[in-house]
Amino acid sequence: MNSYDVAVIGSGPGGYVAAIRCAQLGMKTAIIEKYATLGGTCLNVGCIPSKALLDSSHHYEDAVKHFEEHGIDIPGDIKVNLEKMIARKQSVVDQTVGGIDFLMNKNKIDVYRGVGSFKDATHITISGEKPIEIEAKNTIIATGSKPSNLPFINLDKERVITSTEALKLKEIPKHLIVIGGGVIGLELGQVYRRLGSEVTVIEYLDRIIPTMDAGLSKELTKVLKKQKFNINVSHKVKSVARKGNEVIVKADDKKGNEIEFKGDYCLVSVGRRPYTDGLNAEAVGVNVTDRGQIEVNDHLQTSAKNIYAIGDVVKGAMLAHKAEEEGVFVAETIAGQKPHIDYNLIPGVVYTWPEVAAVGKTEEQLKEAGVEYKTGSFPMRALGRSRASMDLDGFVKILADKTTDEILGVHMIGARAADMIAEAVVAMEYRASAEDVSRMSHAHPTFTEAIKEAALAATGDRALHM
Ligand code: FAD
Predict the structure, then answer these.
(1) Which residue among 168, 289, 378, 388 is least packed, with the fewest CB closer than 10 Å?
(2) Can you tell me the distance from the alpha carbon of 321 to that of 349, in angstroms, rounded to the nearest whole number?
(3) Are both 36 and 87 inside the same structural domain?
(4) Does 409 share its domain with 451?
(5) Helix (H) or strand (E) holding 397
(6) 361 lies in which domain range?
(7) SS3 category, 380
(8) Which residues form a coiled coil (predicted)?
(9) Which of 31, 42, 112, 321 to mutate to test the pocket of ligand 1 (most atoms within 8 A of CB)?
(10) Ligand 1 atom with minimal separation from the 42 CA
């Protein structure tokens, strides 16, 4: 029987990063994955394929809507070849997951294919034609999550679909109904909106992207409406039915009136649930909460002391980079180090266009905590860079402590916000004040100048270009 210092169950961004860090620290490491390809949700059916389709659809939209204005004439019609677009996405995925095989090899990590199941706290059985058993001093559970559903919806995965099917449709929906106005629904909704679908979003709460700062939600709603999204907030979906190729969704609005939506596809994007099926976790004393998450302490250690859990399967934001940080954290903890993660500084991003990105506290959280703060905002449209590319929507907002000027939160919506948020993370990691950022030189012309201007606005209303 093969014996390891660490076995990692699940090869998503949490699991494969944990395995690499364990190997770097000199531990004999194995990784177990039940699917044929490594990389988990993120690389196979999440972050990477969704961004590939967002990029392709963005190019198409630019060609149709903006090329002429830029002085680029294209003879003949511009058409979408969906089959080719999906095939390109798949080749991006294939290359990326292939890269994980390379990394496992390079770091001498043994890869096992099959469902990993605890036999006892130090032995794992791996399913397959001939089940294998391995021994591990420590195990890291990184089994991720799956799309959730509402109890009354029958996901036929043909027309009533999850994000996984939305990444490989064979036709462009005429009318896509999206249940859930969170990140995944809006990103995939925008892909098909750009390709020509009518898109209707139905959200239960009173705003889209409800966990982000309300200012971002308001601006994104405005921009998406300009892009002809139908957005219905405060609507409670009651039923989803199929009649041939038609999907009928019934919901109650705020006043209790029943509203009927008819489309040809319905994307159910109401969040994700932690995944622990087949793990046999309880049998080795690993507690699973009512919400299906694996219970962990501040060291990400489960109730069994040599078993850790990370990523989507534990509490916290369901984000690839959060899972990665936790993977490194647990590897270093097992190696006897004392790592640290500041969860307040894990950025959140929505890859619509304009992009939405944030780090730190929202205004709502600061108000609730009774923290006195000041605000500095700057609109993207006031930047030369924005006018050059005609990306005029959005703003950067900096929230800073009223007395100390320390930056407490940065919220932005605009072109390339997903990349720009890194500056805010660095500033907050070093506990910068708004004035510190306002005194840093930002290259001109760049979108990042909006960060400097917002910092100037937060420190005595000193924005220069407003
Ligand atoms: P996962 O990536 O879910 O990996 C878990 C792996 O464990 C899977 O491969 C599974 O097969 C395997 N597994 C489960 N049980 C067993 C078992 N018993 N034995 C063996 N293997 C097992 N996040 C971002 O940060 N940015 C984005 O842009 C982004 N976009 C997304 C877009 C979509 C459409 C979706 C669905 C998600 C997106 N996410 C994004 C979320 C991101 O994918 C997850 O947060 C991330 O993948 C979680 O990583 P993980 O390692 O915890 O689990």
Answers:
(1) 388
(2) 11
(3) yes
(4) yes
(5) strand 395-401
(6) 348-460
(7) helix
(8) none
(9) 42
(10) 43
